[in-house]
Design a protein that fits this description.
The protein has two domains: 226 residues, no CATH class; 91 residues, no CATH class. Helices cover 61% and strands 17% of the residues. Strands 1, 2, 3, 4, 5, 6, 7 and 8 form an eight-stranded antiparallel β-sheet that branches.
Length: 363
Amino acid sequence: MKILDRYILRELLGPFAFGVAAFTSIMFAGKELFRITELLAEYHAPLITAAQLVLLHLPSLVVLTLPMAMLLAALLGFGRLSGDSETVALFAGGISLYRVAVPVIMMAIVVTAVSFVLNEVVAPTTNSRHEAIMRDLTNEPLSSDKPFFVIVSENSVTDLIFYVQRGFDASKGTLRDVAIVQYWKNRPAVFIYAKEAVWKGKNEWILKNGYTQNLGSKATVVVPFTESQTREVRINRTPEQLAMYQKKPDELTFGELREYIHILQKQGAEVNEFRVRLYQKIAVPLASLVFALVGTPLGLRPHRSSSAMGLGLAIVIIFAYYVLMHYTFILGRNGTISPATASFLPTLVGIATGVALIFRAAK
């Protein structure tokens, strides 16, 4: 690394660290702080638990604030160099704007990689743990009691449909109030109801306290079974896969969310929102590169403005970018544009804007 690169990076690191701390604190205070305060006051949560919740929530926040900090670093770092006429000396010495921009682009690539790792590896785990602690404190079940249904099919032929009326307990691997319709030659053949279904393994569930009803003949036969007279049924869904029906997209990795979307598509469910969320797992970390490209030429403009002006400009750019991201998210969710377009359009607009500003400033 050359002296110029080290010098510019030193100018960037200070504002970057400040930006991460400042923007993370602001976003944390906006919502999570009130939730934790409520837990302390209403549920008498221990301080150590509150501290755990804070730490577990940080990775998902940092994924969002790293790009913001990257923009602030470019604006304030280069703004300081420009304000003290150091960039004038660099350009007079034959160093081009493109060469000056290299360190910030390299830094943005590293920050983008860190964001990817946080978003894919760390944040899903910490978000799930965060929600688990919240459920424990508020005495909520591991999964919600909302009903859901799953269609199990093979080669577009329905094998069975099962409907879970009162959710499930993932820790015990049990479903509550289960209704199952088994198909034969794509026609309903058997109806099974069970008060409880327990995961046995190898795609088998043990049904307890219910009855079976033959749907394939005119003479309907109802055969009850009790807790001691259990019945087994093969359902090609594990407790982990069923847990996806209760998890939020930010608690799933890219691969898990893609698998969940695949399951929903087989059922004919609407998946536009989930597909937008899937692509955003790539698009959001890329915002660091976008903001570096936009912030570099703006910071290098000849001026003597204060740091407050740089911070204000950063807030305006961030606000505009995320308003555009939210708007395209709505369009993608509604099917007006494709989910991929909805996710990556703000990124492409930002990159194009940054490149155009750099070329213009270099003239």
